[in-house]
C-alpha cells in the first residue's frame, strides 16, 4: 500500500503542475523562472535532509545537462499551452515522450529484443499516436484552431529533444536519481535565468523582477514532488521501474481533465468522450511499452 501511494505521487504532482502553472498565469518566461526556482528550493532541502553527496566530473555534467534539457523543453510546452491549452497539449507531449523513450530503449538499451516484443511495441506506438490524435479532435472544424494545433504539435515535437535529454542523460551516469536531483535543478535554473535575460533584452520586461514569477514557485514544488516520488517509486524495493513508469503516466489524465474543469478549456460532450477514449489508449500503450 505504501509503495502504491508513493507511486501515485507523480499522478498528483505532474498531473496538477501544468494546471497550477496555467492558473497562476504569466508568460512562459514567468512560468519557467518560478517553476525552476521552486524545484531548486525543493532539491536543496532534499539534499541536506538526506545527507546526499554532490556529484562531480562527468556525473555532474550529465546531471546538469539533464536539467537544461527539461527546462528548455518546458519553455516550449508552456508556449504550446498558449496556443491550444494544457488539456490538449499534455496528451500530445506525453505521447511524444512515450514514443521517444520507447525508441531510445530499443536503439540504445536493447529493449524489445524479440520479434514478438517489437510487434507489440509497434502496436503500442500506434495506439499512442491514435490516442493523442483523439484528444485534440474537434467537433467543429475551425481553420484557426487547426493551425494552432499544428503549431503546437511542431513546438512539442522540438521540445521532445529536451525531454529526451532529461531522461537519457542520467542513464549514462553512475549515480542515483536522488544524487542527480540537485544538479538537475541547477541546470533548470540556468536555462530559466538565461531565457529571462534574453526576453528582458528583447521585450524590455525582466521576469526576475515580476511577482508572478515568484508565485510560480508553487508550481515548481508540485513538479519537484512528482520527480522525487517517481525516483522513490522506481526503486526495486518499491514498485520497480516498469510499474513506477506506468503509474507516473497516469498524470496525463489528471492534467487533461483539470485543464478542462479548472481552466475552462471547454469541450463538447462528444469531444469529451473521444478525449477520454484517447487517454485510455495512451495509458494502455504505456503499459504495453514496459511489459514487452
Describe the protein in words.
There is one protein chain. The protein has 292 residues and is an all-alpha fold. The protein has one domain (1-289). The protein has 13 helices and no strands. The chain has helices at residues 2-7, 9-24, 28-49, 57-84, 86-108, 115-135, 143-171, 177-203, 211-215, 217-233, 240-249, 251-261, 269-291.
Itemize the secondary structure elements and their pairings.
Elements: H1 2-7, H2 9-24, H3 28-49, H4 57-84, H5 86-108, H6 115-135, H7 143-171, H8 177-203, H9 211-215, H10 217-233, H11 240-249, H12 251-261, H13 269-291
Helix pairs in contact: 2-10, 2-12, 3-4, 3-8, 3-10, 4-5, 4-7, 4-8, 5-6, 5-7, 5-12, 5-13, 6-13, 11-13
Question: What would a concise description of this structure say?
Answer:
This protein has helices at residues 2-7, 9-24, 28-49, 57-84, 86-108, 115-135, 143-171, 177-203, 211-215, 217-233, 240-249, 251-261, 269-291.
Descriptive key words:
mainly alpha; globular
- What is the terminal separation in angstroms? 25 Å
Largest sheet: none
Poorly predicted runs are none
Count, helices: 13
Report the principal-axis shape: globular
Residues in helix, % = over 70%
Rounded to the nearest angstrom, the radius of gyration is 19 Å
SSE succession: HHHHHHHHHHHHH
Count of DSSP strands: 0
**What value does the average pLDDT take?**
90
Number of domains: 1
Class of secondary structure makeup: mainly alpha
Strand portion, in percent?
A: under 5%
Membrane topology: Multi-pass membrane protein
Keywords: Membrane, Sugar transport, Transmembrane, Transmembrane helix, Transport
Family: Belongs to the GRP transporter (TC 2.A.7.5) family.
Subcellular location: Cell membrane
